[in-house]
């Protein structure tokens, strides 16, 4: 029997980095967290363990967000088990960097299929249950470079700019059902995604950040929790930058 007193939260890409921090930020006795991942089973189990340590419940499922069928089955499982979905955080993302002239079609497709189409599939799957319950919070993780652009990341920037368009359109479509749709735009955050950069490259990025440091996944998770709160119910279609002062709109 679904327990309707529990707040149900779905996070994509919860096995590592920002997604794991988001799961942990929501963790507690009153919440049930479902997250997915692409292949890192061990990391997913660690997220489950860390959430349990905080008195919460998290269920990690291997679901490829680029597959509409897998996403639909995942969301159906969540609704069958909990009877509702309060929060969706579209966080799963990848990079395949390269200069435009050398960028392969496959790298364009992988990035856009994961970051943009994957978010569309998840949003579409939760929209009906959220409309029925006349409540929902959807938060899309975009990026600073989705607004500014970045050399060597045309595919990634296009996907993240697209996510902002998706956020604003969905916000308008779903507002009358008391469903908010917002985006969080991190700047330079310490995760596996940025770990491959050389110390020199990291140093030159940090030099451009007014706060003179990279951000933490927890600092991004705090912005997500704000949009997910009851109190943020009149805020929709917005992009909140979390970037140490690098860019303000
Ligand atoms: P990580 O590389 O640390 O984690 C990515 C997560 O996405 C993992 O959980 C991964 O699963 C999951 N994932 C990737 N592809 C798929 C897929 N096809 N289906 C399901 N899950 C998938 O990334 P970050 O934590 O750094 O980034 C999280 C989000 O924040 C991304 O959208 C990213 O673009 C955005 N962002 C990050 C910034 C940064 O500086 N780190 C800056 C701005 C935005 P698995 O572990 O199985 O691979």
Quick tags:
alpha/beta, 249 residues, binds NADPH dihydro-nicotinamide-adenine-dinucleotide phosphate, seven-stranded parallel β-sheet, Rossmann fold
Strand order of the largest sheet: 3-2-1-4-5-6-7
- Helical proportion, percent range: 40-55%
Bound molecules: NADPH dihydro-nicotinamide-adenine-dinucleotide phosphate
Beta content comes to 15-25%
How many domains would you count in the coordinates?
1
Q: Write down the Rg.
A: 17 Å
Q: Report the CATH C-level class.
A: Alpha Beta
Give the overall pLDDT as a whole number. Answer: 96
Secondary-structure-based class equals alpha/beta
Tally of separate helices: 9
Order of helices and strands: EHEHEHEHEHHEHHHE
Please identify which CATH superfamily we are dealing with: NAD(P)-binding Rossmann-like Domain
Are there runs of 5+ residues with pLDDT below 50, and where?
Answer: none
Largest sheet geometry: 7 strands, parallel
In the CATH scheme, what's the topology name? Rossmann fold
Extended strand count:
7
CATH-defined architecture: 3-Layer(aba) Sandwich
Distance between the termini: 46 Å
Description:
The structure is a single chain. By secondary structure, this protein is α/β, with parallel strands linked by helices. It has a single domain (7-242), classed as Rossmann fold. The protein contains 9 helices and 7 strands. Strands 3-2-1-4-5-6-7 form a 7-stranded parallel β-sheet, sandwiched between helices. Helix 1 (17-26) crosses helix 9 and helix 3 (68-82) runs parallel beside helix 4. NADPH dihydro-nicotinamide-adenine-dinucleotide phosphate binds at residues 12-13, 15-19, 36-40, 43, 64-66, 91-94, 114-115, 141, 143, 186, 188-189, 191-194.
